[in-house]
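Comment thread on ticket #2218

A.B. wrote:
> Attaching the input chain for the structure job we discussed in standup.
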Amino acid sequence: MSDQRSRRVRRPAAEIVRELRNLRAKPLRIDDENETWVNGYEKPATPDLPVTSRDQLELLRLSRHRIGMLLVRPAFEQAVTGCFVRVNVSGQGELPDHRIAEVLGICELDFGYKVEQIPTNVALRLRYEDLEMQHEINDVSNLAFTQEEFELWRDNCVNQAISPPTTHTLTRKKVELYNALQLEAKPLSLIQRSFSFALRPPEKVGIMERHGAAYPWQLSHPLPFVSQPPPENPARGKTDTVAEEEDPGAAAPLLPKSEPN
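C.D. wrote:
> Ran it. Output below, let me know if you need it in another format.
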């Protein structure tokens, strides 16, 4: 009797293998609304749509602090390429003017500088408007994109026929950035030992200029203190003046006496 029950329950091996081959990996979901399979049919893939809002582009933005964290990771170039930054395009001594720029890659400079106490000679290759420029990492702002900057960037994409990033690109870059940050960072001592180029001396500017801002007025520094000689006695000076006024001939030079002919 038990043998008959086991024969009824046992399934053919070929049928089990066929079902295992047809199985597909399904993501673990909490609710049933996001299941990839509905009534035995697979849901269509999510459409790959271009980014249309500032909040979506913010997910691809890298701040100067985040770039400094990625700078010591081995996958730095792969992680930052394809992301966006808010870069200051003004020259030294000018009011800051920021643009939304896409990171096309990295390059090396002939000199070195420090990014949050990390020595490097790496610069970013950025694209904004109709230009492709090299910028130091210190030119990148830590602040978020403004709506005006986003609209300017979107109009430029239309004028230059540049395809904006898509939702699939956004998802892929988020995974790449997460994986890059999980890698073990290079020790700072190792970076300093392998530093083979000269560091540029730090610029002596105010704290606002170092963070991408500028003073709306020129600071007037006080003149340096110069020690003055002690003043003369006023009573003595007054007496000498009165004596000179009363006897003007006293200070006159003496003339030699003429000898009689």
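A.B. wrote:
> Thanks. Noting for the ticket: Residues 241-248 have pLDDT under 50 and may be disordered.
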